[in-house]
Every structure is written in structure tokens, then in C-alpha cells.
Design a protein that fits this description.
With 332 residues, this protein is an alpha+beta fold. It folds into two domains: 151 residues, endopeptidase domain like (from Nostoc punctiforme) (endopeptidase fold (from Nostoc punctiforme)), CATH 3.90.1720; 153 residues, Lysozyme. The chain is 33% helix and 13% strand. The chain has a six-stranded antiparallel sheet with strand order 5-10-6-7-8-9. The protein starts with 21 loop residues before the first helix and ends with a strand.
Length: 332
């Protein structure tokens, strides 16, 4: 892809890199390779509650689509099998096996969604390395089936998982089935156990400077490729233009970032989510593998961003990007 100035706005374009030499990048910003944090807006995973050998699997499965989060995957597993990879559910009358493994797949569903994820030669619902990714795929498929149903998309997805998508479509929401309603309530309640809430640590003086610079640009229009170290250009900002401007101003001109969300996602210092402070930059994968959006953490679960064409620079809930993989970067 040819290098060019600009940041890709959410769901509309692809972000392209501005050409900077590696030496200049290392000189301007301390930092290195990103090992991006998998998290979901305000729904980061409380890894202390998940068996260590399953953490990565849960985090990957929980970022396959916007509706599904790692805490949801973990809560489902607790409900379905209590984290027992050898769990087998049996018909209460015939005692024949009907569902298998840590994610409790029935054979018909496994045939459709199961894969040999670990390349051991077998797609096995009793193998968590195969089953947990399949659970994420299945959840996302069900979520897509009921995406046009009004109401809470997570509740609708869980109801469709339990009662089938058509029941949710026919009811125009969670159907009046006691088993389904109890399932939705229990999973959503269990999600709290597996959720690592955002912690509002005090902002550094640098972070406050980033926020102050960005706040001055509120209500400026979104313009693709807009923004530089001096302020709006071409009449506005795009996402990475706003970030590079705010960081440059806060640093007193010492840090000049490239006009590229992909590049900004690998720079600075990577910060664990529970240590995030106002003024930190969050790079977001709006599509898997593509850090096409960057925002500034404002505090209180909110962000400052230049979102997309037709929208001005604004303060918005970070939760709008739930279900998308993110990495938190600090530049000061």
C-alpha cells in the first residue's frame, strides 16, 4: 500500500502509513514492538478469574465481533461446563451424550463451526484449543442473525444462543421463555465477575496536557488526512491527526508522531489496561489486524476522538468500541 497522510475512519476506509525512518521514530518516541492488549472497551477481561491456560483463547474468541467480549465468553464457559474440558451433558431420559466439552457443543453445531485450530489433525469439541475459538465463531454468527432485532444486542445474542435466532426474531427481542430469560440474566450477571473495569488513575501532567490540547478542538469537523502539529488542516482533523496534534502540543514540540493510526499503535509505551490514565492513546482494530482508529482516553470510560466523516471531534463513550481489539499507548 502506498504511503500517504491520513487516518482511516471507522468502517469507511483503510489507514495508510506515513513514511518515517526507524531512526527518527526511535529518536522521537521511546517504545518498541506492540504486543497489543486484547480488550473490549469497558469490558476488559479479569484474567485472575480465568484458568491461565485458557486466557489467550478466551481473549481471542471474545474479540471476533463487536457483540461478543472476553467476559461474555468466560461467563458462558462457566455456565456451560464450569471450565471442565471433559464435561459431557446427557439426555435426562436416555442418558445418551448430547453436548461435549468446555463449550458444550452438540454434534450438529460442532460440524458447522468446529475446526482443527491447533493443527493436531482433529477438530475435537473436547479440546479447548478447538472448542473456545469455535464458541466465539458461533456466538458471532448468532449475533449476526439477530443484528436487526431492537434492544440489547448482547441479550438478543444470548437469547438466540439459547432458544435459536428465529425465536428472538419472532419475539422482536428476548422471547418470553423462562429458561431463555434465566439464561440471559445468569450470563450477564456472571460477566461482572470476569470484567476488569477501567480504573481512573490520576492523570500525569503530560496526560493533562494531551487532554487540554484535544479539548480545544472539540466540534472541529472530521476531515480525512486533516490535522498537523499546528492544529486543523484542510478544515478539520482525522483520528490520527488529532492524536499527533495533542501529543505534540503536550510535549512542547518534542514528540512528533506520524500521521498514521497503524504507526501510532506501535509507538510509545504499551500500558496495561488497569493502569490506563487520561491522556493515554488507545489504538483500535475496527477490522481484525487493522489498527485503523485511534482515540485519546478522557477518563470515566470516555474518549476524545475525531470519529468519521459527518461527525465532529467529540467526547464519547469508549464502550462504543466494545468487541474490538485495542492497545493502550503512553507517550509522555
Amino acid at each position: 500500500m502506498n504511503a500517504a497522510k491520513g487516518c482511516v475512519f471507522y468502517a469507511l476506509a483503510a489507514c495508510v502509513a506515513f513514511v518515517f525512518s526507524l531512526i527518527m521514530l526511535l529518536t522521537l518516541v521511546a517504545g518498541g514492538e506492540s504486543s497489543s492488549i486484547t480488550s473490549n472497551g469497558t469490558l476488559g477481561l479479569n484474567t485472575s478469574k480465568v484458568p491461565a491456560k485458557y486466557v489467550n483463547l478466551v481473549m481471542e474468541a471474545g474479540t471476533m465481533c463487536k457483540t461478543v467480549s472476553p467476559p461474555l465468553i468466560a461467563a458462558q464457559i462457566e455456565s456451560e461446563s464450569s471450565w471442565d474440558p471433559g464435561a459431557i451433558s446427557r439426555d435426562p431420559v436416555t442418558h445418551e451424550p448430547i453436548a461435549y466439552g468446555i463449550s458444550q457443543f452438540i454434534p450438529a453445531t460442532w460440524t458447522q463451526y468446529g475446526r482443527d485450530e491447533n493443527n493436531d489433525g482433529t477438530a475435537d469439541p473436547m479440546d479447548p484449543q478447538d472448542a473456545i475459538p469455535a464458541q466465539g465463531r458461533y456466538d458471532c454468527a448468532v449475533a449476526k442473525d439477530v443484528a436487526n432485532v431492537p434492544g440489547d444486542p448482547v441479550a438478543n445474542m444470548l437469547a438466540a444462543y439459547n432458544a435459536g435466532p428465529q425465536a428472538v426474531i419472532n419475539a422482536n427481542g428476548v422471547p418470553n421463555i423462562s429458561e431463555t430469560q434465566d439464561y440471559v440474566k445468569s450470563i450477564k450477571a456472571a460477566m461482572a465477575k470476569y470484567t476488569a473495569a477501567l480504573s481512573d488513575q490520576p492523570a500525569s501532567s503530560f496526560g493533562l496536557g494531551v487532554i487540554a490540547a484535544a479539548e480545544k478542538q472539540l466540534d472541529i469537523p472530521y476531515v480525512w488526512g486533516g490535522g498537523d502539529i499546528t492544529g486543523p488542516s484542510d478544515g478539520g482533523f482525522d483520528c490520527s491527526g488529532l492524536v499527533l496534534y495533542a501529543v505534540y502540543q503536550a510535549s512542547g514540540g518534542k514528540i512528533e508522531l506520524p500521521h498514521s493510526s497503524q504507526s501510532q499503535a506501535t509507538m510509545g509505551r504499551e500500558i496495561p489496561r488497569d493502569q490506563m490514565q487520561p491522556g493515554d492513546v488507545i489504538a483500535i482494530q475496527t477490522e481484525p489486524g487493522d489498527y485503523s482508529h485511534v482515540v485519546i482516553y478522557y477518563g470515566g470510560g470516555k474518549i476524545i476522538e475525531a470519529p468519521r466523516p459527518g461527525r465532529n471531534v467529540r467526547i464519547a463513550p469508549l464502550s462504543e468500541y466494545d468487541g474490538m481489539q485495542q492497545t493502550v499507548r503512553r507517550f509522555g
